[in-house]
Specification:
It is built from 20 helices and ten strands. It has 667 residues and is α+β, with helices and mostly antiparallel strands. Among the domains are: 163 residues; 160 residues, no CATH class; 96 residues. Helix 1 runs antiparallel to helix 2.
């Protein structure tokens, strides 16, 4: 058998050896100015990626072929498990997720090796790849010593234990690799930061390379967080979009600092300032990514999708954290004075740099609040033995006062010039935006009950209108002939349009969150044929049926929702019983309308006096889908902005090949 677990184990060990060499040889080559060792670095990065690819394929093959002699497969799979979840279940457990982490990290090293060959200085690139190799070696050693995914058991069972039925869902199946791509992607800006500290030099070109990687990692992390939030919304049956789950907070923390990193990298690239701050953000964002890994796998944080298995694993990751974070911060303290911004351009507080700096301060303040609220309960439990709960009321009360000025600055920032702005021209740009926002807020006041939801909705509208207004003013809409505005729009840099799209996505998400505060719900006990009224809709239970699934038996309800007699949606909430785990879970049914979600959950049945009734939880969630639609728009805008940078780099490479302008345009 070619893809045997032993081959996967040997390939993992080989990858660890190659990664160690990848982390050592470049420094030796740079010290002795040996170009052979430096060039060998790139081949080592490719070799590590190939070895981990083989190892990962071997683990997938063991899952697909039901090789229950592998302990990881026996603990997390079963014969009756659908093929999709046999494959995706490989990374739905601790051992497989760490292997996936190392594999994605090797892909990052390979991409840096491939695309930075001609545009990056040799010494900087060698150091970046070396640092990525050292980080990969640490995780691969972790796999081999405490989290071996290829461990054999004897005798092998006839069938496996399966996986948590809540995790057998397409949303969560693809949530981990997307989330890990975000986590691991921030290793590249981290490596660039450490390499810059070692060289003692940061310039605008450094910022040009860091920003695309930060944007890419941020896009993946945004998608991963959104997928996890969506999964909890439609699988767990809470009816809400976000409950400040500690494990999700562990992802939100690096997302906040990663957002600050993107904006500060813009200042480095455009104005050659905030260099030291950007270096610190690069270190901090990846450090928080590693910290999230430690918190989820050490047993400190508990959640339905946490890997709280063996504290010994947490100790290993804690040691790795100490080396990576402690070492990088010590290096920063020692080398940062060499990066004093002697050539940087001074700027006024009222300028685009000033707004980006304010953006950074508020984002990092939000990060500090979320970090404190997440870690306070477990540390108090360790110190005092008391169980303390920090939930939604605390996070809402502490984050909203910081988020409101952040969103206001988000609308103003893109309209400001670099270096210095004047108040009166800015007010001339803003008066129309303020007027439209006030009108929209007046209209919204008839739909939103409560001051805080109305304020948040107004801020969301402000972001959307300000972003659209910025583009309209740049193309002179209604102030120039229509064709002239079209030509100016076509000439706008993609980064400008991408920023506007991303900010509009933020506004849409905030508007969806604000509207969800107006949600209505009802828990009822209904016999078949009865109707309940909620939010202007008639909800009628028309039938109950049993339906078999691939590895479960389901009790499925048919629920018709009508408005003034017109059928709006037919919902099919269900309860699924998984025989392997002897566990029953609710399967939510949602109908997403343009301005609301109709959400239903089927509960237990009861029979009293020969009448069978069924418990149903009904929700009317206004603008719920806008929360995740806004996140998708954020990613689209960021990707659009990134495509501008990538296109310019591509053209630069083509010019190096001495191709004619007409050929370049055709390509």
């Amino acid at each position: 058998m070619f893809f045997s677990p032993e081959l996967g184990h040997y390939a993992l060990a080989l990858a660890c050896i190659i990664a160690t060499a990848q982390g050592i040889f470049p420094f030796i080559g740079l010290y002795y100015r040996n170009s052979l060792l430096i060039n060998l670095t790139y081949r080592l990065a490719y070799g590590q990626c190939i070895a981990l690819s083989v190892s990962f394929l071997c683990l997938i093959y063991a899952a697909v072929t039901n090789d229950f002699s592998v302990e990881n497969i026996a603990m997390n799979s079963a014969v009756s498990k659908p093929l999709l979840y046999k494959i995706t279940g490989v990374w739905g457990n601790h051992e497989g997720s760490i292997l996936l982490w190392a594999f994605i990290l090797s892909l990052c090293g390979t991409v840096v090796s491939l695309f930075g060959r001609h545009s990056l200085p040799t010494s900087l690139k060698a150091r970046v790849i070396a640092i990525l190799g050292l980080i990969a070696a640490g995780f691969e050693l972790f796999c081999l010593t405490t989290s071996n995914p290829f461990m054999r058991i004897f005798p092998a069972p006839w069938d496996g234990q399966g996986m948590n039925p809540l995790l057998q869902d397409p949303g969560l199946a693809f949530h981990p690799p997307i989330l890990y791509a975000g986590y691991v992607g921030f290793a590249v800006p981290f490596a660039f930061a450490i390499a810059a500290l070692l060289e003692g030099h940061v310039d605008a070109a450094w910022g040009q390379w860091v920003r695309p990687w930060a944007i890419t990692a941020w896009c993946f992390l945004t998608c991963g967080i959104a997928a996890g939030s969506w999964w909890s919304y439609y699988v767990l049956g809470w009816g809400g979009y976000w409950f400040w789950d500690p494990v999700e907070n562990a992802s939100l923390i690096p997302w906040l600092t990663g957002t600050a990193l993107i904006h500060s990298a813009i200042v480095v690239e455009k104005r050659n300032t905030l260099k030291i701050w950007t270096i610190l953000l690069s270190i901090g964002t990846f450090s928080f990514s590693l910290s999230g890994t430690f918190l989820v796998r050490s047993g400190i944080l508990n959640s339905v999708h946490a890997f709280a298995n063996d504290p010994a694993r947490g100790i290993f990751i804690l040691g790795l954290l100490g080396i990576v974070i402690g070492g990088s911060l010590l290096l920063f303290a020692y080398r940062a004075p060499l990066l004093t911004e002697t050539n940087s351009t001074l700027f006024e507080p009222l300028s685009r740099e000033g707004m980006l700096l304010l953006n950074n301060i508020l984002l990092c303040s939000l990060c500090a609040v979320v970090l404190t609220g997440t870690l306070y309960p477990p540390f108090m439990a360790i110190l005092t033995g008391q169980t303390i709960s920090v939930g939604k009321p605390f996070f809402d009360a502490t984050t909203i006062p910081l988020a409101i000025p952040l969103f206001i600055a988000m609308g103003i920032g893109p309209m400001l010039p670099w270096k210095r702005a004047h108040l009166w021209p800015l007010l001339n740009k803003l008066w129309f935006v303020i007027a439209l926002t006030a009108i929209a807020a007046l209209i919204a006041s008839h739909k939103f009950y409560g001051l805080l939801p109305l304020v948040c909705a107004t801020i969301a509208i402000w972001i959307i209108i300000a972003s659209l207004s910025d583009i309209a003013q740049r193309v002179a809409l209604l102030r120039a002939p229509f064709l002239t505005s079209i030509n100016r729009a076509c000439a706008l840099p993609r980064s400008v349009i991408g920023v506007a799209i991303a900010h509009i996505g933020v506004g849409i998400t905030v508007l969806g969150i604000s509207a969800m505060s107006q949600a209505q719900h009802l828990i009822v006990e209904m016999p078949i044929g009865t109707t309940k009224h909620l939010a202007g809709y008639d909800w009628t239970l028309t039938g109950i049926a049993k339906k078999p699934g691939p590895n479960y038996m389901a009790l499925v309800a048919t629920l018709e929702v009508r408005n003034n007699g017109k059928l709006i949606a037919t919902l099919h909430p269900a309860r699924r019983h998984f025989n392997t785990q002897n566990q029953t879970i609710a399967h939510v049914s949602i109908a997403s309308l343009p301005f609301a979600d109709l959400y239903s959950v089927l509960g237990k049945q009861r029979t009293i006096d020969h009448t069978t009734t069924y418990v149903l939880k009904l929700h009317y969630n206004p603008l719920a889908s806008w929360i995740w639609g806004g996140a998708l728009i954020m990613v689209i805008g960021s990707a659009f902005s990134f495509s501008d940078r990538r296109n310019n780099h591509f053209r630069h490479i083509l010019h190096r090949q001495h191709l004619s302008p007409s050929v370049i345009e055709a390509l």
